[in-house]
Amino acid sequence: MLTKWEVRDEVRARRRMRGAESTARLAGQVRDQLEGLVTRFDARTIACFAATPLEPPTGAFLDWAREHGVRVLLPRAVSATALEWCVDDGTLREHPRLRVPEPAGLADPAGLDRAELVVLPAAAVDRTGARVGWGGGYYDRALEVLRPDLRRRLFALVHDDEVFDALPHEPHDVPVVGIVTPTMYLETHSESR
Ligand SMILES: Nc1nc2c(c(=O)[nH]1)N(C=O)[C@@H](CNc1ccc(C(=O)N[C@@H](CCC(=O)O)C(=O)O)cc1)CN2
Ligand SMILES: Nc1ncnc2c1ncn2[C@@H]1O[C@H](COP(=O)(O)OP(=O)(O)OP(=O)(O)O)[C@@H](O)[C@H]1O
């Protein structure tokens, strides 16, 4: 099996090959998939992320959510290890070091507690729900303290070619229950882990 770092290198290279222009064209499909997820769970408050130009684009979905009264919490890195969460109001700025778009507003002191489901960024995810992030450990730490019912509402959003048959995982990795890509929704078999 590939190591986490080999997986990240491979995915990074594939994302560069795909390029920002082709990636941007996936925004409508991602919106439809995430809209379906929110509707299926009848969620009023969710957590998601503001995508970089190479991640599956979330912008069209965030617009839809704002127009339909769905509150979306977006993460902001506040230290080398911790995230805080802000309700999306459409204003984003780039984190100077991590180069990801982040919300500019006030943090919600309740953090992830109000979320009914969480859509996570990832480098890759496998069919048992093992998720490989970018190695910062930000999400692993945030997920560790989640209430148990929210742990069963974690979804990774990745490109189609980032769904692997098997990926390495460590004890601190929290599995996702579903995978969203621009073209599909897949339930994982995380209960068997
Ligand atoms: N859009 C987004 N926001 C996010 C994350 C993320 O992965 N994506 N994070 C996740 O923890 C947190 C910020 N920490 C991060 C740590 C590492 C990398 C990183 O190494 N990214 C890759 C690939 C990005 C891309 O495909 O554009 C890289 O820079 O090579 C990004 C964010 C919170 N906000
Ligand atoms: N719950 C935790 N508490 C403390 N450290 C942690 C925790 N989870 C992960 N870490 C540390 O964070 C670092 C990155 O972990 P890992 O390689 O699993 O990141 P990742 O899953 O790719 O990142 P992310 O969770 O941000 O998407 C490792 O050094 C790991 O030991």
From TrEMBL:
Q: Which keywords, in A-to-Z order, does the entry hold?
A: ATP-binding, Ligase, Magnesium, Metal-binding, Nucleotide-binding
Q: What is its EC number?
A: 6.3.3.2
* Keyword Cell membrane included in the entry's annotation: no
Question: Which enzyme class, named as a word?
Answer: ligase
Q: Which GO terms describe its molecular function?
A: 5-formyltetrahydrofolate cyclo-ligase activity
Protein name, UniProt field: 5-formyltetrahydrofolate cyclo-ligase
Q: Which cofactor does it need?
A: Mg(2+)
Which Pfam family is one of those matched by this entry? 5-FTHF_cyc-lig
Asked if the record carries the keyword Nucleotide-binding, the reply is: yes
Concerning its family, UniProt says:
Belongs to the 5-formyltetrahydrofolate cyclo-ligase family.
Recorded hits in InterPro entries, A to Z, give: FTHF_cligase, FTHF_cligase-like_sf, NagB/RpiA_transferase-like
Q: Reaction catalysed?
A: (6S)-5-formyl-5,6,7,8-tetrahydrofolate + ATP = (6R)-5,10-methenyltetrahydrofolate + ADP + phosphate
Family matches, as PANTHER family: 5-FORMYLTETRAHYDROFOLATE CYCLO-LIGASE, ATPASE INHIBITOR/5-FORMYLTETRAHYDROFOLATE CYCLO-LIGASE
